[in-house]
Amino acid sequence: MASVQQQTIIAGLRIIRRKKLWQDPERLLQDAREQQRDWPPNPPEKITQRVQIQTDESRGFPVFTFQPKSGGSSPRRQALYIHGGGYIHAMGAAHFKLIATLVERAGLTVVAPCYPLAPDQGWRDSFDAVVDLARQQDGPGTPLLMGDSAGAGYALAVTEILASEGRRPRAVLISPYGDAFASDPRTAKYDARDPYLAAVGVRTALQAWAGDDDPKRPEISPLFGSFAEIERMLIFTGTRDTIHPQAHQIYDKAQADGVDCRLVIEDGCIHVYPLMPIPEARRAIDMIVDFVTDDSNSREHPDV
């Protein structure tokens, strides 16, 4: 059963009828364009007080690098974090807060691209540059990719590229997209329970991201790619999430492709719950910190 804090958030979403936005494709894209007038976002002052942040705009879009304030001369493990938002919304305060927490607790250097957004930009406008960012990780350990929602799908697509190059990457995926069509027949069941997302809006946003390309391309729908040679994966999902079935599909494919993978399921939680101020998120962050700081050999993990 979900915590009181999660239930309160769900009640608030229902009061403001947030799902209505995702049920109206035309309004959803119009709202996205209006919000993108303030793109790119700036890190909140509270975050700049907690961690060091550098900004690089040489790729045509901002790339933030987060590091601990304490510095230190020893090599630090690096991670690439790709934010969610259905490919139509920019990084928000919750993304900055999660990244800062991981930097502080796990001693990571985190690189976070603020990639151009749909519907006026698509995957081709940033994908190659983001893959190059992932290839440039030079800290100890195998490449580490992380993301939430659409960003988790993006991170998984990049992980597949690195895996195909023999780099044995690891991935942390929070409420991941895997299929732009949301074609799993269980989707309707979870859509009816979700107070936030709606399947029609999910398909609209992801197909805008695809542009004129086939949405089944692995760069867009990584569920249709290969997970072979991915070293380890950690997936989080809640049962009040329209795309909850996609987390199961990704997990099942990982198992079939021989990936050491753990699927964490929180009953009654909604989309990207680990980014929320709730007890379930604290548990998730503890698991992520353990995952990214554990350099032991692959092993079997029980599902939660």
Write up this protein.
By secondary structure, the chain is of the alpha/beta class. It has a single domain (4-293), classed as Rossmann fold (3-Layer(aba) Sandwich), CATH 3.40.50.1820. Helices cover 39% and strands 17% of the residues. The chain is built from eleven helices and eight strands. The chain has helices at 4-15, 19-22, 25-35, 45-50, 93-106, 127-135, 150-164, 187-193, 199-210, 244-256, 279-293; strands at residues 51-56, 63-68, 78-82, 109-113, 144-148, 170-174, 232-240, 260-270. It has an eight-stranded mixed β-sheet, sandwiched between helices. A hairpin with a 6-residue loop joins strand 1 (51-56) and strand 2. Helix 5 (93-106) crosses helix 11. The longest helix has 15 residues, at 150-164. The radius of gyration is 18 Å and the shape is globular. The two termini are 14 Å apart. The model is unreliable at 297-304 (pLDDT under 50).
Number of helices: 11
The CATH architecture comes to 3-Layer(aba) Sandwich
Helix content: 25-40%
Q: What is the H level of CATH, i.e. the homologous superfamily?
A: Alpha/Beta hydrolase fold, catalytic domain
Rg (CA only): 18 Å
Instruction: Give the number of DSSP strands.
Output: 8
Query: What is the molecular shape?
Result: globular
* Residue fraction in strands: 15-25%
Features:
304 residues, 17% strand, single chain, 8 strands, Rossmann fold, eight-stranded mixed β-sheet, alpha/beta
